[in-house]
Amino acid sequence: MILRRIRDSRADAESVRAVADAAFGRPPEQDERRRVRFTRRVRHLAVTDPHGCWLAEDDAGRPVGAALASRREGLWGLSLLAVVPGAQGKGVGGGLLRQAVAYARGTLRGMICARPHPGAARLYRRAGFSLHPSMRMTGNVDRAGLVLPDGPAIEGGAAHRSLMDSVDRRLRGGAHGPDHEELLRHCRVVVADDLAGSGYAYVDDEGAVALLAATSRRIAVRLLTSALLSLPAGSPATLRHLTAEQEWALDVGLAAGLDLSADGYLCLRGMRPPSPYLPSAEYL
Question: 27 is in which domain, residue-wise?
Fold first, then answer.
């Protein structure tokens, strides 16, 4: 097996996508928007974090595993760890994770949104991460069950990046920085900023709340409610990576008629689950 850094190229991005599809047992993505979003994520991280992005190849040069890690100020995050089925259990995942974790040197905190896979959970625990069980909520939004927001939440954009970075630093010890630019390519962002606090929520075109951060539960509830109410009536919504600390989000989701199920683990090192906060699996 050969481990090499992922290059900022379409070919390497496609190799990573093929590995992820095989590892997670999903058919090749047919939706062009999802394909573009995945490809852009790989190339974005290959540029911002070249020492954290690794591809594993077998002796014939075929890609069999991939890892994407980022470092944002004091926080390290793992965006992806995937190994094709034929190479699982042979040390490929452990080798990739060691390279990715080596990139965390000098940071104080670490975060991973992990799928409910026992092998991955063992790897992360052995690497020193605490495993916090997480939940997901899905379903069509029942607008009638939602209480109207208690204050303004406006459509945001690049002009609010300083505010968003400030909220990031307070909650997770590091700003998302350039990741906001990438998120804004694929999502709308709702922003709130008044005497009750500050925060933001990204919502993609499939109704998934991709990332939410706020300085108070009151603002978090306002943002999540506003995000759900902004969706077309009866449209699907998804909330993911809810730990026990995010009961405020659980209450909003239940009021909106969303169904609750288990969703893997939020893996943390050097920190407690940030709250109020719903992480992005891609950008943490």
Answer: 2-107
pLDDT tens digit sequence for 59-73: 888 999 999 999 999
DSSP designation for 173: S
Give the model's pLDDT for residue 89.
Answer: 85
Percentage helix, strand, coil for the chain under 3-state DSSP, each rounded to 5: 40, 30, 30
3-class DSSP assignment, residue 178: coil
Which range, of 96-100, 117-121, 272-276, averages the lowest pLDDT? 117-121
Q: Domains in the chain: how many in total? A: 2
| CA–CA dist 231, 45 (Å, integer) | 30
pLDDT 10s digits, 220-272 = 999 999 999 999 888 899 999 999 999 999 999 999 999 999 999 999 999 99
Same domain, 169 and 217: yes
Among 55, 58, 60, residue whose Cα is nearest residue 17: 55
Residues 131, 273 contacting (CB under 8 angstroms): no
Same domain, 101 and 164: no
* Residue 35, both tokens: 């394909």
Q: What angle do CA 96, 87, 20 make, to 5 degrees?
A: 65
**Which helix (DSSP H) or strand (DSSP E) does residue 227 occupy?**
helix 217-229
